[in-house]
Amino acid sequence: MAGPPAEGPRHLVGRGRCSVPWYVAGGWAVDLFIGERTRRHSDLEIAVPAGRFPEIQRLFPGLAFDVVASGHVWALTPEVAELSHQTWLRDPSTGNYLLDVFREPHDGPTWVCRRDPSIRLPYSSVVHHTPDGIPYLAPELALLFKAKATRPKDQQDFDAALPLMDDPQRRRLAAFLTRVHPGHRWPASLR
After folding, report:
1. What is the C-alpha to C-alpha distance for residues 27 and 32, in angstroms, rounded to an integer?
2. Is position 2 within any domain?
3. How confident is the model at residue 3 (pLDDT cuts 50, 70, 90)?
């Protein structure tokens, strides 16, 4: 199953106004934090508050969203949306996937971690911006999500980001990992 392409996030900027708080997630978020592309990416992921996802859908008329869960892909319906937070934007005329959109839990202006709902932060501390205005997930949160399976690319992202993270970011990541992924090996490197 092939996911969305990895054109990079710069092609999203300047495509019209979007009042929904969105941000680049995954490996691209780490690269945006670092300020350069550090590895090849197989897809592009953004995240939006789940309750505002219909506004995102309206920005892409003529394109389709599919829900992705457990290696399966289904056309988006309200019932299927409950299976997973992950949706892929697809061009129905070609069948090509263009973008991976995560529908994330939130409480109004507060971001809620889907892995541990007790982790709640204002969007202002969750979303950072590049000098040219691209919003991306704070590195400590991007790495928290990457820690679940810790594939080689996730370790590479951790190793690349670690030297650039400040002490508060390292402390937050260590605390979140201890809470969400007890016994994970990364906290030892964060001290």
Report:
1. 9
2. no
3. low
